[in-house]
Amino acid sequence: MVDYLAEELQKMFKDHNYTSIIKLAHRELNQKMSNIDKKNYYFVLAKAYYFLGENKQAFENIKEVMEILELHQLPKKEVFDAKIEYAKILRRIGEKKQAMEIYSELLELHESSLNDDTRAAIYHNLANLHMEQGNFEESKKLFQMALSIDQIYMNEEGQAHTYSSLGGLHFYLGEYDEAINYYFKSLNLRKQTKDILGEATVSLNLGSIYANQLNEELANEFLIKAEEVFKEINHEKGFHSVLNTKARLYYSLKNFDQVITNLEYLENKEAVEITRAHIPLIDIFAEALLKEKQVIKARNVIKLGIDSIHRLTQGKFVEMLPDYGKLKQMLSQVAVIQNKLDEALEILNELEEIGAEIKDKRSLIAIYHSKAQIYLKLGKYEQATVFAEQGRDLAVKYKDSAIAEILDMLFEIYFLQGDFRKCIKVLKNIFRYVQVKNKQRYSLILRTFYLLENVKLKNIKDEFTVLLKFSEIERSLYILQETLHNILNFSSTEKKVEILKQMSVRIKKDTEEINSENEDEPPLEEVLKVLSLDNKKLSELSLVDLLTLLDSIFFSIKHKYISKKYLQKIDWTEKLPLDFQLIIKQKQLILIELLKKHFNPINVTFGNQLLEQKFNQMFTRMSVKITEFQDKISEENLLILLYLISSIAINTLYVIYLSDKDEAERKDV
Amino acid sequence: MSRREKWMLSPYRLAHHPLCKNFDDHMYIIRGHKVCRGCINLYGGMIAGLILAPIMVFVLKVTFWMAFVATVSLFIFTPISAFLEPPRLIKDICRFLLGIAMISAGLSIILSIVTLAQAMNWWAFAVILITLFLYFTSRAYFTGFRNRKNEQVCRNCDQFYHPRCDGMVDAVDRAKAVESFNKGDAFSEQ
Fold first, then answer.
1. Which of A212, A216, A440, A544 to mutate: most B Cβ within 10 Å?
2. Which of A40, A87, A395, A502 has CB atoms 3.0–4.6 Å from A99's, for a disulfide?
3. What is the mean pLDDT of chain A?
4. Total domain count for chain A?
């Protein structure tokens, strides 16, 4: 090779200008030259393609080099360099055994002829191969050997590589702190040696670690650095690796919008370009599209994934069954959204057969869940019940996280069938699987259903057809409103009294249960006393705590108390025995404070006019009805009504609070 | 899946519980490693049982009846400790006794088989059936019972929905590491 050209190439390598190197080498190869020069250009090409991660082209060029080497007697150093490059490329294309043989042969047959740089490089690359095969101890030993040689000869480049690899080794062992430590050592050395590609690679790996730790800020910091460099040197593979890492991070953080942004490049890929490594990315891309309701795009991406699996496995998709199943399942979801229920059922039947054959219980849970959903949508409650119950049984057995959702659906099915007893059973089960903060909500709904079950109000089932889905928490509010509405408007006084009597029994039982549950907690009176005296403490309570407190107040005072603010005409404190008056007054004060502070309908329902109307209508109606009732029914029955009203009030507040919270979260996003 | 991968993906390893403060009293720390307290006590009891067994058979000449009565008497502490929630030390002792009870159960089955072989004693047959029934049903029930109790601790924890909660962070990191290893993108070659 002509000297000036060699120098230029070296400079280009240093500047990571691989595309230009490739162009230049190809141009030169078209000219007439000696075999030795040809070998040099092929070698240069192999190296450039290797750096760009284009392994196929790298392999083709290094093979040319090896063929020329066989025909000529060349200096040993050149032969060793070519062999090391050959082994590196072999590793990349999966021929690890052959790569290992080359390194072992170099160490065994030529150890005395190898200089220290080359020996260190061989140790390093051999360590990489061991690491890839999971022989971490052997790998660590070899890395340490390479590192000590490089440290003796002050080979900073070599040390930087080995620190990176040691970082990788600890990364793969899940020892992130040590990995980060090694990566930073490598990063510093790479900055010193101005190895920008190395810097980008280490930054990418650091970004990957922080992404695994779900540390969005640090992950982004390093990934953006890597992205900039990869873009600058036109390194497509590196650039895509950054996007993939970002997408995985955002997928874990459930930020599906960002997943889509980072994986959009997959849409432009032809089916033939899709490799096995792309399939998991297609999975998360399709899922993100589905979550973001981009159904048509999702269908296209899923189709791309399924076609690619068929192509990659040559029809034997069983090899990639988890990915195939996931994509098919998503396709069924797309079909459901597009109202193509027959297509969805067909896909699910296929998956059910596969799942049963390979005994993949977790997949079967998801399949039964989806089938139940479809039958529910079709109004075929019996089939929906069968599949939901099958899904529930498996989910309980295998502790699958879908259990809460399946129970939720079963509740909906039983509810639509008017089987409140089963609803209560399901609610109790859901209660077991939900977290504390949701327990308050479920306990309210559970209490509502106890009422429904006990007063045998099954005949009002038809009135509930307008109810929203269970997942929308307003349902419990509607049920209570309707219950109250029914009680207040029953024409027969006897019927009214009968219902109220039954409620009285239920309330007493509920009170006993609640009291026995809260044995460890300080009495409510004490809590209230503290809060009524300390306004600051009251304002420091979280909204959920406030609502819970409010619920307790309503619940405990159901016999004697109502808020002055909304039912001003009734002052229950006058009717109370002296012993109770103080506590009731305290409760009144706190309640009014709470309502003023957090639930002033004008403020709270800002931007939510429907709820504002609902809130006002409800209290106006209750106020009127209760006032009408005051003179006509016994005090005991009136108190039972107050109990119902209190439940409605607290549920309304929950609805308002949660709707506002959702609204605020949506605005934040 | 290789043994190494299984070990990497094993969520709690020898601790058998999440490694957070909520489960501190379920673990011993041995040379910096958290190890399941219940299992240590159980295995301790089993070792004690194995030492006592030959003495019972060859020195004290116990019959299958005696071994069966010993099994039931030692086992009875398990439901008591499960339902009454006594202090941890008492629980430890109960686990230790359960270990002895398990060896005693094995012994009563062996002695029953020997008795059955020597003379057709139907009581020996009944003891075998009762012991096996007791072992399998109680194992299934109490494992489920303990799992549910531990699960409730997690469900009531603020970090329950946190993907890297304090108790699982090591396990999650290791699982992610295996994923990264399988992707193989953290290599650097010289």
1. A212
2. A87
3. 74
4. 1
Across the interface, which of A164, A432, A435 has its CB nearest the CB of B188? A164
Question: Which domain does A502 fall in, by range?
Answer: 464-668
Do the Cβ atoms of A241 and B185 come within 8 Å? yes
Contact flag A161-B190 (C-beta cutoff 8 Å):
yes
Q: The tokens 């005395």 sit on which residue?
A: A112
Examine the pLDDT at A314 and tell me if it is beyond 50: yes
In a domain, A55, yes or no: no
> What Å distances lie between residue B22 and A227, A353, B25, B155, CA to CA?
41, 42, 8, 12
Tell me how far CA of residue B13 lies from CA of A177, A460, B174, in angstroms: 20, 54, 11
Q: Examine the pLDDT at B34 and tell me if it is beyond 50.
A: yes
Average pLDDT over residues A161-182: 89
Burial call A314-345: b when 16+ CB within 10 Å, e when fewer: eeebeebbebbbbbbbbbbbbbbeeeeeeebb
Residue keyed to tokens 């429904």:
A452
Burial class (CB in 10 A: 0-12, 13-18, 19+), A313: middle
Instruction: Give the strand pairing for B33-36 and B27-30.
Output: antiparallel
- C-alpha torsion angle, residues B12, B15, B20, B21 (rounded to 10): 170
| The residue type at A648 | I
Q: State the average pLDDT over residues B160-173.
A: 83
A85 lies in some domain: no
What pLDDT digit, counting tens, does each position of B48-76 carry?
Answer: 999 999 998 888 888 999 999 999 999 99
Q: How far apart, in whole angstroms, are the C-alpha atoms of residue B146 and residue B17?
A: 11
Residue with the larger pLDDT of the pair A427 and A450: A427
Q: Is residue A584 part of a domain?
A: yes
Closest CA to A121 of A101, A137, A103: A103
Query: Taking CB atoms and an 8 Å cutoff, what residues of chain A touch B144?
Result: none
Question: Which two three-digit tokens encode residue A563?
Answer: 């808020």
Closest CB to B155: pick one of A91, A213, A435.
A435
What gap in Å lies between CA B13 and CA B11, rounded to an integer? Answer: 6
Higher pLDDT, residue A228 or A550? A228
Which residue reads 């039982």 in tokens?
A509
Angle, vertex CA B145, rays to CA B143 and CA B151, nearest 5: 100
* Contact between A262 and A244 (Cβ < 8 Å): yes
Token pair 């209190």 is found at A646
Determine the residue of chain A that is closest to B159 in CA distance. A435
Closest residue by Cα to residue B176 from A625, A602, A308, A249: A249
Contact B128, B113 (CB under 8 A): yes
Amino acid sitting at position A544: V
**Cα maximum dimension of chain A:** 116
Tokens of A97: 């055994």
Rounded Cα distance between A189 and A187, Å, is 5
The ipTM (two decimal places) reads 0.70
Q: Measured between CA atoms, how close is B157 to chain A, in angstroms?
A: 8
Separation of alpha carbons A208 and A600, rounded Å: 48
Q: For A46-80, how does the pLDDT look when each residue is reduced to its tens digit (9 = 90+)?
A: 988 888 878 888 899 999 888 888 887 778 778 88
Distance of CA A583 to the CA centre of its chain: 47
In a domain, A557, yes or no: yes
* pLDDT tier, A282 (very low <50, low <70, confident <90, very high otherwise): very high
pLDDT at B100 over 80: yes
Distance CA B174, CA A179 (A): 13
In this predicted structure, what is the pLDDT of residue A584?
A: 47
Closest-CA residue in chain A for B4?
A134
CB A76 within 8 Å of CB A113: yes
Q: Is A541 exposed, middle or buried (0-12, 13-18, 19+ CB in 10 A)?
A: middle
Strand partners, B36: B27
Distances (CA, A) of A647 to A438, A446, A610, B94: 17, 12, 20, 46
